[in-house]
């Protein structure tokens, strides 16, 4: 033993630790060849579903539950235009959709498809007053209802909020998940980078047309470079023998790397009117010929936000409840990240049953 | 003067980068201060690594908020955009020479389609508003004149029925049949819902006109 002034440096313990770590690394190396096989088993969405409506590249899925439909009002999930929507039905035990389907909700999901160059001139108006309106109308017609419940996630939440403000008559309840509304805050890095002092959105969109998936992927990666480029791979390496961890990791990574381009004009409008001018909170956001007035939202609203969200900090979502006219509004802040709010194990056990109950009470 | 500005800018950026590395290194060095040799070395190493990465992460996040980084980001994005625009213009000229369609041409066509679509939709919207206005006018008009129309319809029906009866009575034996002028009127009165049909028919005829 080597003695120091106040503590002792245990050489034997160090030697033992080094040998253990070496053996552990050898075991991890042995697990590597099976990784490909595990990656092949990753499924994009787990709950059985059918396509019930199609328009251009858009598809509306209806999820098929095992039990009967117990609630008369259907639920339509609106996902962001960035990434694919199967994150809401990632895998067994980590599915937002399954929570609603199992509770007897007739659940639908809008899949925007993969936009190509022909979609570069699509605007927010096309999405809000076109696609979402048509989907909700279709679902209402199919279910014989006049109103539907709408759940929007991230950018899908912002679109759902605009839709509800413009078409309140067809929305019964609105649930928002990590939704950016007030972009005045510079708490999040994305908001700071998108500021007009640092980002010329017109020059960018005019050059690239649709905003490439790789650009968005890099931007998200740079939000937490050390976590994403060092900590994540290290953590994966250390847990490579843990099947459950690997399965979760592969599902998440498949989704995270499954980026899609964002139609150029929608990106321009979002960057300019939201990130740079913050028009939504001022009730000045133009959607085609209409102006979004948040005060026109009168239905019950449940605003869910994640306390550790780097992409959409709670400060960006919280102001909504004060800007709408709904008397029945609620905020739930949950200790999770942007994605963990939907698929995290804790969120699945604690948050989503509460959300399902909230919606069931207002059916 | 311009050269001085450029030099100043470069110096500030270099300083910001230097600060990033100095902060990261200081943070990493500090992370070892909590090291306790009496604990399990494996666990201690993991904890130290966590602290080191935390320190680097914080330095990077601070750096990405500095005006120098934001300035560099804006400049590089601007350069990329201008390079992209130049490349596009070059490709466009090449396509023009070769007589093929460039991306710009395709975008032009798409934009033209969008404009046509918008104009058609606007026109349809105007027509829809017009039709809705006409329908409202018609329904109010129908309500006003519903009774009149109903009366006229009934009168016409009665006339037709009595004509049929007259024809039938002429054909039949003259002695056997009693006169039945009031019966059809009763039938019409019993079929009151027919007014709706009448209204609908009236609306349809007007629409066609």
Descriptors for this entry?
heterodimer, A: alpha/beta, Rossmann fold, eight-stranded mixed sheet, two-stranded antiparallel sheet, 15 helices, 16% strand, disordered N terminus, B: mainly alpha, 2 domains
The helix count of chain B comes to 6
Q: What series of H and E elements makes up the topology of chain A? A: EEHHEEEHEHEHEHHHHHHEEEHHEHH
Helix/strand-derived class of chain A? alpha/beta
How many β-strand runs of chain B?
0
Keywords (chain B): Coiled coil
Organism (chain B): Pelagicoccus mobilis
Protein name (chain B): Poly(3-hydroxyalkanoate) polymerase subunit PhaE
Pathway (chain A): Biopolymer metabolism; poly-(R)-3-hydroxybutanoate biosynthesis
Draw up the topology in text.
The complex is a heterodimer of chains A (363) and B (209).
Chain A: E1 2-3, E2 8-9, H1 11-31, H2 35-40, E3 49-55, E4 58-63, E5 75-78, H3 96-102, E6 107-111, H4 124-143, E7 148-153, H5 155-166, E8 171-177, H6 189-193, H7 201-208, H8 213-223, H9 225-238, H10 243-256, H11 264-276, E9 285-287, E10 290-292, E11 301-306, H12 314-317, H13 320-323, E12 329-334, H14 340-343, H15 345-361
Helix pairs in contact in A: 4-5, 7-11
Chain B: H1 2-31, H2 41-63, H3 67-98, H4 103-171, H5 183-190, H6 194-208
Protein name (chain B): Poly(3-hydroxyalkanoate) polymerase subunit PhaE
Biased composition (Basic residues) (chain B): 184-209
Keywords (chain B): Coiled coil
